[in-house]
Here is the input.
Amino acid sequence: MVNDIDSVVAQFLEWGQKRSPQLRANDVEVALLGVPHTPVAMRKGWQGVYAFAFGTVWLKVGKAGPNSNARWVSPHYKATRSLSNLAWSLLRYTRLSSFNHPRLPTNLRTQLMVVPPDALGDWIKKHTARVNFTIRAELGPVALDRLERIAQDVLKPVFEGRWDAGATA
Here is the structure.
């Protein structure tokens, strides 16, 4: 997992070296919120990309701009917040899909079947790790988009975008 995180940062900084002004190492911060984790507010003047992992499998990657602290700390923990958050993806995978994703542990579905939908947020906080990649807001939306794309490419999260519960690996 640490190698994945280092790779995201290295590729982002490599991309940033071709920009004007060039990115500096202190323009990027990484916070690894272990298992269990508690979401933390984004600092003023920063924007970022977050990623959730269950064991060694990356589940979801998302981003939040500098004025989106609510998006940063809460939507992935409640299935009814949107159709593209982690809680909704886990609910769909567990209860609405017969598809067994080959990268997910076989016991995950069984483990989640006993979790009521309104308790998925607590399950996520208790059983997943979260990584926050934050960058200075002055780097703008292009840098934020690039960081998210790099994180998605490197981490290859199982539930990305509006995940199709019947998709094949």
Observations:
- The beta strands are 28-33, 46-54, 57-64, 129-136.
